[in-house]
Amino acid sequence: MRKCVIENVWLAIGSNLGDPTKQVKAALMAIGSLPNTRLLVCSSYYRSLPLGPQDQPDFLNAVLLLETSLTPDKFLDYIQAIERCQGRKKHVYRFGPRTLDLDILLFGKRIITTPRLIVPHYDMYNREFVLYPLLEVAPNLIFPDGTLLIQRLSRISRKNLTYWVKE
């Protein structure tokens, strides 16, 4: 019999289309109803400039802390289904606008490299809109490579990151 392992998962959430606040609220409801998963905390909402083409709206970003006993692949299946249900289309170009973007940042202390999933998220250490919200939900976080979140933050500026006013 397989032992049920409960792991912490840190998930980035972003939106810049279709009323981002409503998109994020709907995603939080959907994530909260995932099987064998519990939403523990959501950071403040942040406003960030788009990484790619600048002729698109600013992004609403946040980080969630969850507990789950789902496998990483099954968890990924569920969050991709949530993205699709909220109108996420396969984007033509990278870093384009989107109704909803859900990225697994960390899955417990695991290091995962498969064709479908890379954890820790491949570029999370360089993104202020990930690290600052992550600080809110896990201030003492130690990454799988042994570095502290606070050490990573010391290497990155807040740039144009501001709070998004919740509606």
From TrEMBL:
Q: Which domain of life is it from?
A: Bacteria
Alphabetically, the GO molecular function entries are: 2-amino-4-hydroxy-6-hydroxymethyldihydropteridine diphosphokinase activity; ATP binding; kinase activity
Enzyme Commission identifier(s): 2.7.6.3
Record's keyword annotation contains Disulfide bond: no
GO biological process annotation, one example: folic acid biosynthetic process
Sorted keywords for this record are: ATP-binding, Folate biosynthesis, Kinase, Nucleotide-binding, Transferase
**Matching InterPro entries, A to Z?**
Hppk, Hppk_sf
Which protein is depicted?
2-amino-4-hydroxy-6-hydroxymethyldihydropteridine pyrophosphokinase
